[in-house]
Amino acid sequence: MTIERARVPLSRWQQAAVAVGSAVGALVNPRRADLIAALGETTGKPAFEMVLERMKKSPEGRAILLERPRVVSEQVGHAWDLPDNTFGAAYAKFMGSRNFSPDDRPPVRFMETDELAYVATRAREVHDLWHTLFGLPTNLIGESALKVIEFEQMYLPMCMLSVIGGTVRFNEKQRSMFFRHYLPWAVRAGRQCTDLMCVYYERHFDEDLEQVRRQWGIIPAPQHPK
Fold it and tell me: Coiled-coil annotation: which residues (predicted)?
């Protein structure tokens, strides 16, 4: 499946302006997924280029780049029919329990080449698969912890900016829980696991969830302390 040709060519000054505007807007309204996406694209080109090179050196990564699978309903809908113990069924349960759709992600607009646009799209679309693998909720703590893992995996500046923005909005109890339990875990989890951008997840949907976690070195999120 090809990436939608919604890309907008930008000069360096225009990229800087979009990045600053998106950062300010995202801090004011962190629910604006389009602004967060624009920030990731306009500040993330070097990181996405490094991810692309790593994918080219990996057998599964090369297969992903060649076949360009998409995490959209048309291609992952069969996950809802898989046995309960499978990775695919866990993903379907995660999505269904939150009334999420695989088709909700905004399109990539500011990458210069088709190849980089696909890598950015892939990074965006596997986000909920990572939620499933690490057992992270979608609340403020869970999203901030996953951004730490994404930073450890891809070194995207947007991820660290999102963590900073998230911690600013924590209350005292959330801040204590995040820095004592979730941040140290997320740093370790992001460094210890395999290169997650080089995993062809769709080929493993029918495998046991705990088996793929072990295979990829996934450390599940800590339980909420009593």
Answer: none
Residue type, 15: Q
Annotated binding-site members for Zn(2+):
127-128, 131, 143
HEC profile for 2-18? CCCCCCCCCCHHHHHHH
Contact 215, 203 (CB under 8 A): no
Within 8 A by CB and 6+ apart from 33, the residues are 105, 106
Residue 88, CA atoms < 13 Å, CB-side half-sphere = 19
Question: pLDDT tens digit string along 82-119?
Answer: 999 999 999 999 999 999 999 998 888 767 899 999 99
Binding-site positions read 127-128, 131, 143
Asked whether 22 and 16 are in contact (CB, 8 A), the reply is: no
pLDDT in tens, 122-172: 999 999 999 999 999 999 999 999 999 999 999 998 888 888 888 888 999
Residue among 165, 123, 155, 148 nearest 219 (CA): 148
In this structure, what token pair is assigned to residue 10?
């930008």
